[in-house]
Amino acid sequence: MADAKFSDGKLHDIGFLGLRLVIGAIFIVQGSGKFNPGTAGFLSNMGLPPELQIPIALAETIGGILIILGILSRISSSILSIIMLGAIFIVKGASQLTGQGGVALDLMLLASCLIIIVMGPGRVSISHIIKKIPRPLH
């Protein structure tokens, strides 16, 4: 009898690589957009200090790159999860799911980061190839 295990096959590895590529690309684009000087005024309108502009932009950009490469992806996803929680509750106020000010995309990014925290970078990653990085740091 044919037994198909999704978690052991190549399809699982390719699917998880696709997830990492998409999530990483979204964070890189979002983070690089925050390097513009106009973002500081946007943060101050929400009650956040404008000094957070560069750390948030760096965390999103570098975190997205690390997730794509599969290096320190659990740590990067943890930091990005904290940023997404801040975006959901502080920036948007978690008022509605869709529409203007909706948090649907933020919730999907948070869920994807949580999946990467639990699953790790997968077998198609630099961490898996090197095998010298301790497993909790993958």
Overview of this structure, please?
By secondary structure, the protein is mainly alpha-helical. It has a domain at 52-126. 64% of the residues lie in helices and 0% in strands. The chain has six helices and no strands. It has helices at residues 10-33, 38-45, 53-69, 73-91, 104-119, 126-130. α1 (10-33) runs antiparallel to α3 and α4 (73-91) packs antiparallel against α5 (104-119). The longest helix has 24 residues, at 10-33. The chain is globular, with a radius of gyration of 17 Å. The mean pLDDT is 82.
Extract low-pLDDT stretches. none
Determine the structural class based on helices, strands and strand pairing.
Answer: mainly alpha
Order of helices and strands: HHHHHH
Q: Give the amount of beta strand, in percent.
A: under 5%
Q: How far is it from the N-terminal to the C-terminal residue, by CA?
A: 36 Å
Taking all Cα atoms into account, the compactness measure Rg is: 17 Å
Helix proportion: 55-70%
Quote the average pLDDT.
82
Which geometry do the CA atoms define? Answer: globular
Beta-strand segment tally:
0
Main β-sheet description: none
Tally of alpha and pi helices: 6
